[in-house]
Specification:
Helix content: 25-40%
Mean pLDDT: 82
Distance between the termini: 26 Å
Number of helices: 3
Shape: elongated
Largest sheet: 4 strands, antiparallel
Strand content: 25-35%
Number of strands: 6
CATH class: Alpha Beta
Oligomer: single chain
CATH topology: TolA/TonB C-terminal domain
Length: 106
């Protein structure tokens, strides 16, 4: 019983991030990540979820366009606002990167 309680407390303490990002699909590494602001409305609704985006990244590493692939519109807007300020490593050509941001209520 104590072991389960200790594991539960540890899990709660390690989970302080309101959003976690996970890039997949593309080969370019993110050099600058802006953590999305958890929306006030989402907090009032105790909303959790994932915002999935396809980002067109320019050769110099800036986000050019963002296509929404899924997620609650409240969370997607916060994800888009943050990802617009992300930077990726430079590459010889544009690439498409898939980004998933996981949101948890406070």
């Amino acid at each position: 019983m104590r072991r389960h309680l200790a594991v539960a407390i540890l899990a709660i303490c390690v989970w302080p991030c309101l959003a976690q990002e996970q890039a997949e699909g593309g080969a370019r590494a993110v050099t600058t990540r802006i953590v999305p602001v958890y929306p006030e409305l989402a907090g009032r609704m105790h909303l959790a979820g994932v915002a999935k985006l396809r980002v067109t990244v320019t050769p110099d590493g800036a986000a050019k366009t963002i296509e929404v692939l899924g997620g609650n519109p409240v969370l997607v807007k916060a994800a888009q606002d943050a990802v617009l300020h992300w930077r990726w490593v430079p590459a010889p050509h544009e690439t498409k990167e898939i980004v998933e941001l996981h949101f948890q209520p406070r």
